[in-house]
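Re: your question from the hallway

Yes, I did run it. Sequences:
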Amino acid sequence: MPLIRFGVSIEKDLLIKFDRLIKDKKYTNRSEAFRDLIRQELIQEQWQGNHEIAGAVTLIYNHHKRELVNKLMHIQHDFGQVIISSQHIHLDHNNCLEIIAVKGSPKEALRLSDSLKSVKGVKHTTLSMSSVGNGI
Amino acid sequence: MPLIRFGVSIEKDLLIKFDRLIKDKKYTNRSEAFRDLIRQELIQEQWQGNHEIAGAVTLIYNHHKRELVNKLMHIQHDFGQVIISSQHIHLDHNNCLEIIAVKGSPKEALRLSDSLKSVKGVKHTTLSMSSVGNGI
Amino acid sequence: MPLIRFGVSIEKDLLIKFDRLIKDKKYTNRSEAFRDLIRQELIQEQWQGNHEIAGAVTLIYNHHKRELVNKLMHIQHDFGQVIISSQHIHLDHNNCLEIIAVKGSPKEALRLSDSLKSVKGVKHTTLSMSSVGNGI
Amino acid sequence: MPLIRFGVSIEKDLLIKFDRLIKDKKYTNRSEAFRDLIRQELIQEQWQGNHEIAGAVTLIYNHHKRELVNKLMHIQHDFGQVIISSQHIHLDHNNCLEIIAVKGSPKEALRLSDSLKSVKGVKHTTLSMSSVGNGI
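Structure:
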């Protein structure tokens, strides 16, 4: 796709911070970094509407906790519409990292993430809000 | 593990907001929500130090972009120490969701995430900072 | 589901071999082993017909081989109907293990497996024929 | 790596069958098919010795079966040395496809596969014997 070039006005202070960020994040130029910021905004918008989204839910838990594994499994089967597959890493003898790939309704993905988070014994949950790749 | 009970002083306004958050996030009580906040802080700390961490990097990209797939593959093999495995979802004929499970040095995980993000053609990247489960 | 009990006639020699197999495979009794044999037959049948199946394709390849990674990616996107997700393990600096979860038409799964196998540079392929779990 | 060319003597009947197989499997020539046969033999050998191997175990089970999910989880954590990660697919409301990527001792991988297979409620198990990519 052809690139369109245009000017941007920005305060000197803010530009210095932006350039430091670009360097830290290893971007090769300002345009690349700027495009990423716009995409990030578009994705936030998709997650607040009814667009199809994609993303990942991560869980950390101790699989020895009574009934925990069963509960997590039942919740996931209830959200079969929004879950594609999950990846399970045995971190050590007790702890598990589970990464659930989601695609579909943002509302359902958020409900899934909240449901898993509220299960007693789940130590930590994150929700990566990403996109199905169209419109960004 | 036995639970210890203690009092917390908090402004009324802040408590109202906290209770709304608890309800939105489906927590059954304040203690559970409070424990999660503490764990979140501990994980932030682990990622800023040299503790072993776990987490996930998500990528969205169009696999038809020239040389993109090769570049992503080469970067991942250079970071073999911190990558456990990755999960690949074919979103549609063009777009891919790739979720990389990481475990090890937080610095290396951040470097991996930044390296992948800076590859031209990668539309979106997220980094889920989580934990190996000990000390939280 | 209630278990039905019935008698089986079998040559002594064959039974001795069967019992040895049961011991090697750690079955707790003959019925359990016998049920597995029947299920195995049913699955073979599903893969020869038009029933929906599930399974896994594994690949071993050297990702440095010119164009190999791109070709494998393009083939997988052409078979989007039958692929759910794939798991990628970086075995060492050169070698990759890729495990593709498949669900759908047995003919398509076989075509996918054969297409990937015939790509120059793929060192080894296996196809695990399993089932979606119904009717076995 | 340079290719070495040499002659092979083979019965006409067997060659006809071989050529039919090549066509069915979409190989572009006999040499490619022949190399695969040799690699297959080498991998069989690796799995009977003490060489490091890689592969995949697939399981089909009904996650509603009492205690089944817990048992499978506990077994997998006992075999942490040989398991890299696992991929979980929710086939429908009852049935699960779990694919476990293994790397390490062939004896341990076989013991893992047998242990999972013997759990009551597991409907089907397969073991894909593959390789870490070296020496084939």
